[in-house]
Amino acid sequence: MRAVRGRVLTLKGNPFLAEPGSCLVHHEDGLVVMQGGRVTAFGGYELTKAALPAGVVPTEYPDALILPGLVDTHVHYPQIQMVGAFGAQLLGWLERYTFPAEVSFADRRHAEDTARLFLREVLACGTTTAAVYCTVHPHSVDAFFAESERFNTRMVAGKVLMDRNAPSALLDTAERGYRESEALIRRWHGRGRQLYGVTPRFAPACTEAQLDAAGALLREHDGLYLQTHLSESPAEVAWVRDLFPARASYLDVYAHAGLVGPRAVFGHAIHVAEEDFCTCHRTGAALSHCPTSNLFLGSGLFRLFDALDPRRPVRVGLGTDVGAGTTLSLVRTLGEAYKVAALRGDKLDAVRALWLATAGGAEALHLEDRIGRIAVGYEADLCVLDTAASPLLAHRARYCTDIEELLFVQMTLGPERVQATWVAGEPVYEAARTPDPYRYPG
Ligand code: GUN
Ligand code: ZN
Q1: What stretches pass through the bilayer (predicted)?
Q2: Quick one: DSSP state of residue 441?
Q3: Can you tell me the distance from the alpha carbon of 236 to that of 4, in angstroms, rounded to the nearest whole number?
Q4: Is any atom of ligand 1 closer than 6 Å to the C-beta of 324?
Q5: Which of 155, 361, 365, 387 is the most exposed place for a label (fewest CB within 10 A)?
Q6: How high is the pLDDT of residue 440?
C-alpha cells in the first residue's frame, strides 16, 4: 500500500455537458491511498487519513497539483527521431521525413532502443496511457509492449498497416497485414494492461482489401481498438476522394470497411462535415484533437466546440501526434489547444482542458470506468505537476486567485516534464530522484 498527499484535482463529470465548476473535485490537502494498482481511498486528508494503516507514510507533494495520469489518444513512437522537421505539409512531410524514419525500424535493436526512450519521455511528461502507432514491422510492436509491460502502463498500440503509396520497404499486403496483426493480438491484447489497436495508417496508404481485412480483425476479436487518420489536410482529403470515388465522405471509406464504432479513434478530423460528427456520436467512435501537429504542419483548426456540441457530443481526446506534433507533453498541448480554440473564437477554460487530457481521453478510449479520474476503484495512475517548477512559475502561482487559474497557467507556462508520475500505484518517475529518475533504468 502507498499513498500521496497534496493538492488533488480531478473531474466527476463532463464540463462540456455540465457547468464546468460543478464537475471539479478539488482537495487543497488531499490524500490518495492505493493498493493492488487501484485507488482504495481518496478525499481530504483529515477525513481520509483513517484509511492509512500505521507505518504507511504518504509521499508528500507540496507546491504541486496531483492529477489523474494524462491520456494521449494519438502518438507515433517511431517518429521521435524526426520530430520538428522543417518545411513541409502533411503529404510531403510523410515522404520526406516520416517514411525514411520508419524504414529504420526494420532493425529490431533500433525499435527496442527507441521504445525504451519513448516510454520514459512519455512518463516524464505525466502521460500514463497512450494510443500508439508503431511501424509496419511486427517487432516494433513487441518492442513497445515489452517496455510498457515493464512499467505496467495501460497502453494501446498496433502495427501500422499499409499496402500502397509508400516506399516498398514499408508495405505489407492485405493478407500479410492481417496475419501479422492477428499474431500480435494473440500475443498482447489483454495481457496485463496492454491493449491492441488495429492500425491502418490512413485511407491513401491502404487498399480497400486492406481496410476490409482490418474490419475482419475487429469483428473476430473482442475489445480491439481501431486507430487511423481522418481528414487532416485538404490535399489528403482530395486524394481520398479520387481514390474512393464511390464513398460519400472520407469517414464513409472507413465506415464501409466496418471500422467506425466504439474504440475507433480517428486522428485530426479537421476537414469534416456535421454529418461526420453525427456518425461519431451515434457509433461511439472518437476523435483525437492534435493541436501542435495541426499548427506545425499547417493542417487546419479542429472544431473542438462543434465536436462537443451537447446536442450530439462526440468522444474527443487530446493527441500529441509526435512527430508531426512538437511535444510529448499533454500539458503543453493543452496550451496550444487553447490557442487553436481562440483562433476559432472560442475559449477553452482550464476545467474543460483538464477533462480533455484525462477523463475525456479515457472516454475516447472507452476506458472511462478505469482511468482518467482519481476515484476509489480506479486504476491508480497519477501525474504530479510542480507549480513552482521555475522562479517565474512560482512567482506567477502566488498571484493566482483560484485553482482554475493555477491550472491554466500550467497549460500556458508550465514545463514539459512533470514532478512525478505514478502508474498502477507505484512511483515510476520522480524528477528529483538521482541519478536515474525512473523506476526501471533504461
Ligand atoms: N497521416 C498518415 N500518416 C500520418 C502520420 O504519420 N502522421 C500524421 N500527422 N498524419 C498522417
Ligand atoms: Zn498521426
Answers
A1: none
A2: -
A3: 47
A4: yes
A5: 387
A6: 85
Q: Which three cell numbers stand for residue 24?
A: 471539479
* Residue 357 in this model has a pLDDT that exceeds 90: yes
Mean pLDDT of the chain: 98
CATH of 70-364, one of 3.20.20.140, 3.60.15.10, 2.102.10.10, 1.20.1260.10: 3.20.20.140
pLDDT in tens, 284-299: 999 999 999 999 999 9
Residue 230: its pLDDT value, please?
Answer: 99
Grid look-up 500529441 returns 320
Distance from residue 254's CA to the centre of ligand 2 (Å): 16
Asked if 69 contacts 370 with a C-beta cutoff of 8 angstroms, the reply is no
Integer Cα distance of 235 and 251 in angstroms = 16
Q: Distance between CA atoms of 4 and 312, rounded to whole angstroms? A: 38
This prediction has a pTM of 0.98
Pick the closest to residue 52 from 68, 32, 37 (CA basis).
32
Strands (E), 309-351: 315-318
Pocket probe mutation, ligand 1, options 73, 74, 76, 270, max atoms within 8 Å of Cβ: 76
Sign of the torsion formed by the C-alpha atoms of 206, 212, 218 and 220: negative
Contact predicate 31/43, CB 8 Å: yes
Ligand 1 binding pocket includes 293 (Cβ within 6 Å):
yes
Question: In the CATH hierarchy, which fold is given to the domain comprising 2-69+373-430?
Answer: Urease, subunit C; domain 1 (2.30.40)
Q: How far apart are CA 387 and CA 232, in angstroms?
A: 35
C-alpha to C-alpha distance for 188 and 166, rounded to whole angstroms: 27
